[in-house]
Amino acid sequence: MDSFEINKIVAAVLMVALLVIGIGKLSDVIFHVEKPDKPGYSVEVESSTVSTSTTTKDEEKIDIALLLAMGDIAHGEKVFKKCAACHSIVKDGKNAIGPALYNVVGRKIGAVENYKYSKALVEYDKNWTFEELNGFLIKPAKWIKGTKMAYAGLRKEKDRASVIKYLNENSDSPLQLP
After folding, report:
1. Of the candidates 1, 8, 151, 160, the residue with the CA atom closest to the CA atom of residue 69
2. What pLDDT does residue 65 have?
3. Phi, psi (degrees; rounded to nearest 5) at 58
4. Is 102 within 8 Å of 90 (Cβ atoms)?
5. pLDDT, tens digit (0-9, with 9 covering 90-100), for 85-115
6. Apex CA 61: angle with CA 57 and CA 62, to 5°?
7. What does CATH list as the number for 63-169?
8. At 59, is the pLDDT very low, low, confident or very high (cuts 50, 70, 90)?
9. Tell me, what DSSP letter sits at residue 127?
10. Which of 28, 33, 112, 137 is an S-S bond match for 99, by CB 3.0 to 4.6 Å?
C-alpha cells in the first residue's frame, strides 16, 4: 500500500469524525432543550397527622428518673472529655469556645457572664433542668433552633444520663436526682 492510499484512509476517518461532531452540534442548535432549575419530579404525598403527633409526644415524654438510673458519674467523666474541647467544668473555670459548665444544672439557660450566646439561647428563657439537658444533648440544633453549638449530640441514653449526672455532681449544691 502506498502513501496515497494511507492518506485517503486517514482523510476518510477524519471526515467521519468531523461529520459526527458536526451533526451533534447541529442537532443541539435545532432541538434545544431548556434544563429545569431543579432536577427531578415533585411527588405529592399525603401525610398522616395522627401518627406524627403521637411520635413527637413520645419523644418529648421521657421518664428522666429511669434515664438517670442508667447513668454513672465515672462514665460521665469519660464521655465529658468530648465536651471538654469546648467547655470548662472546674469551679471558676473560664469560658472557652463554649461557656463554663460548673453549676450548670438548675441555672438559667444563657446566663453565664462574659460569654456571647446565640440569640436563640438568650431568648429561650428556661432553666437547665435534667429534662432540658437530656433534650439538648440528644441534638442541640434540633432542641433549640438557632443555637451556634455545632455538636451532633449524644445518641446513647447511658452516655447522656452519665454526662447529666456528672454535670450535676460538678456544682456547689447538686440537685436531688428524680
Report:
1. 160
2. 83
3. -65, -35
4. yes
5. 889 898 888 888 889 899 999 989 988 888 8
6. 140
7. 1.10.760.10
8. very low
9. B
10. 112
